Amino acid sequence: MKLYNFEMAPNARRVRVFVAEKGLDIPMQDVDLGSRAQLNDDYMATNPMAEVPSLELDDGTIITESTAICRYLEEVFPDPPLMGRNPLEKAQVMMWDRRVEQHGFAAVAEGFRNLNPFFENRALTGPVDYEQIPALGERGKARFPQFLDMLEKRLAESEFIAGDRYSIADITALVTIDFSRTIKGEIGDRSHVQRWNEAVSSRESAQA
Amino acid sequence: MKLYNFEMAPNARRVRVFVAEKGLDIPMQDVDLGSRAQLNDDYMATNPMAEVPSLELDDGTIITESTAICRYLEEVFPDPPLMGRNPLEKAQVMMWDRRVEQHGFAAVAEGFRNLNPFFENRALTGPVDYEQIPALGERGKARFPQFLDMLEKRLAESEFIAGDRYSIADITALVTIDFSRTIKGEIGDRSHVQRWNEAVSSRESAQA
User: Fold this and answer.
1) What dihedral do alpha carbons A87, A96, B133, B109 form, nearest 10°?
2) Assembly ipTM
3) At A142, which CATH number?
4) Do A87 and B65 touch (CB under 8 A)?
């Protein structure tokens, strides 16, 4: 296996943290998004969506989409379980992972990509150029505190986001909160989010 | 079990088609999004995200997010499999389902919710009101043909979207294409998408 990676790409970090929690050692090859190497013909031949990360299996099969890569790794390397151990847990982990992704990760990404001059004309990932929409960037920034409020309420009643065990939903939320530096996001005085953030950030996997 | 449903909500239809393909008979209770019943205290008490569909289990547990509901049903009622039969299939089904969702479903939803007067001040689902962003609506409309081109390329090499078997990715794409009427989307002369669309639309589940 080989993971196509870029250090600063938050979706790549989701997979790296997942791999670290599994205790796996997967070779990585960097795709320099800074110089837009994901749009090179060589990379597009393996991944026409021009997105990072992607996982290449030993037979050359490519899996893209960070949660699909994680799903594959969860099936092949089930311990420790990071996506639930029974039908209800599996559904609840997925539910929370998607809530974090839609209300948190997507909001930060919309803020960052629509307001930062680096992404001029590149407001979406992928092979097609799209103009930035400043109003969408501002909406992303406005949504982020709502996301933190959702987390605060949840973490007041639960040790981890999807329940009493660390899961992929915690990984997505950790990456989202670190990614929110790009839009000057702050946890503020949300004490449950603070408690949780210290716990997940101090795991060795958070360095990945 | 009970499914909170709204006939015209595309995410609810994804679950209804999935349930029909499984041959299940799950009681449904309508939540009238037309009169914004999802924002009532009663419904918000069960689902603070104020989204439809949600699945209530017999012990009162609520699962939201359409793909998380499908994941639960897939685990409890594995036949016929709609989310893959082995690790690679499971990952590939998820990869394609997400591609369809991000590049197709989301584009149509952005177009519809940001351009239709009914959604004035309600450009996002959920309890918080957000203004429409017309430029985002236009971008959604512009992205839809790109999504169809992706499907056309894929369906030139594959009978169904995730491979040689019908899966949840076909359900998401079917619902997306029907939903695209709201932005005047058209398959046009994409012959592989036409062939596939006729096949999946003629399944009994498409009536759900």
Assistant:
1) 0
2) 0.95
3) 1.20.1050.10
4) no
